[in-house]
Amino acid sequence: MKLADNKATMSFSDGSPSLEMPIYQGNVGPDVVDIRKLYGQTGMFTYDPGFMSTAACQSAITYIDGDKGELLYRGYPIEQLATNCDYMETCHLLLHGELPNAQGKKDFSELVTRHTMVNEQMQFFLRGFRRDAHPMAIMTGLVGALSAFYHDSTDITNPQHREIAAIRLIAKMPTLVAMAYKYTVGQPYMYPKNDLSYAGNFLHMMFATPCEEYVVNPVLERALDRIFILHADHEQNASTSTVRLCGSSGTNPFAAIAAGVACLWGPAHGGANEAALNMLGDIQKQGGIEKIGDFIKQVKDKNSGVKLMGFGHRVYKNYDPRAKLMQETCKEVLKEMGLENDPMFKLAMALEKIALEDDYFVSRKLYPNVDFYSGIVQRAIGIPVPLFTAVFALARTVGWIAQLNEMIGDPEYKIGRPRQLFTGSAARDVMPIVKR
Ligand code: SDX
């Protein structure tokens, strides 16, 4: 970051001395006012619940222009990556800053492949869960449990440890997600197969059984790979910020990523894809497209507590570019699966059209986000609804790790420790219980 010529001055109406603060510029996007001296010089904090106007860090990984609906991974537009690259190339890009050449891609992919198995002991963790446990409950446990097995890569201050932990996490997430799924359906776990692609391996571990040969469908394989690319990273979203804050204590990478998994589960964040599909299912049950008007009325009624899941975004005040790409992938997969007339997809398209013509959504700049169509694609591939967010976590793991490693590598980083505006009781004395 570079110091701007411009400076910020904070003055106070009570005549307290004003404060001059430096302004820094990034390469693109908003400048920042450096308020680090504010508390020391004024005894006051800033107040920004939800961090609506706060940059928590500097980063060179992902840039979002919410007004334009633009998303860049290390400078490359998401549309070009989703069209010209695969997820392994995208992982290399996010972790190392550059797309690999052919040899680099081969080496990276082989390194990941060789780490896709998990320790045989991991399977015994699953037995403790009920068969109907939510996959994200299982994943939160399993990812944290990885730190019990890989003591040779838990020192986050050691670059070699960070490198191998990154590969292990990227490699093992598909295996763990597939195990979480198999456990809930009572089928045996399928071991990874080293002759399959990353996405193909996931499909195999999910849908193969020991009883017969499973052939990976190339259209589904490509669609899943694109879904992974679209979900790989997204600047300082809630789960990434959780991973950074958790990792800032110096905890091991597996524990920090487990914290990200737990945060992503929420319906306002990664859980929205599952919630969006359940919402479409409810509308379907109530009568489908004819009932969209009634549903929209509920959404507009603040007292209903009903939101249009898969719509709206803290940063995007335009169409989420990932939603557009997801819609295209949706069409490809539905066609491949002979589901062109899938009522859920038709309902989603009708809902989007109506919402985008309704002033309630237009005035609030609420557009479809990545979660609006991702559930329909995953459902068409055969992935059960409760597993959607686990697939999101699988894909986002590389982004979480890249952001965590960037933070640890930043000489300015400290343990994150926000303050507060205290509105509770001032000091008071405890009375003996007989007098309370
Ligand atoms: C992801 O941050 C990221 O980058 C996340 C993510 C990633 O890749 O990591 O992109 C992934 O989490 C995408 C978002 C998935 N969540 C959903 O689809 C859930 C539904 N969306 C909302 O809950 C909401 O839009 C948020 C949480 C996504 C954003 O909320 P904000 O930025 O805090 O905005 P807000 O809640 O203040 O909304 C502004 C207005 C409010 O109305 P008013 O008070 O102005 O009258 O818009 C309304 C909100 O009530 N609103 C919605 C709405 N989203 C916002 N009304 C109906 N349906 C919605 N979906």
Automatic annotation (TrEMBL):
PROSITE patterns: CITRATE_SYNTHASE
Stretches assigned to coiled coil: none
Pathway note: Carbohydrate metabolism; tricarboxylic acid cycle; isocitrate from oxaloacetate: step 1/2
SUPFAM superfamilies, sorted: Citrate synthase
GO biological process, any: tricarboxylic acid cycle
Reaction equation(s) it catalyzes: oxaloacetate + acetyl-CoA + H2O = citrate + CoA + H(+)
Any one Gene Ontology molecular-function term assigned to this protein's record: citrate synthase activity
InterPro entries according to UniProt: Citrate_synth-like_lrg_a-sub (IPR016142), Citrate_synth-like_sm_a-sub (IPR016143), Citrate_synthase (IPR002020), Citrate_synthase_AS (IPR019810), Citrate_synthase_bac-typ (IPR024176), Citrate_synthase_sf (IPR036969), Citrate_synthase_typ-I (IPR010953)
Residues at the catalytic site: H313, D371
Annotated GO CC locations: cytoplasm
Pfam families: Citrate_synt
Origin: domain of life: Bacteria
Keywords: Acyltransferase, Transferase, Tricarboxylic acid cycle
Family under the similarity heading: Belongs to the citrate synthase family.
Protein name, per record: Citrate synthase
Gene that encodes it: gltA_2
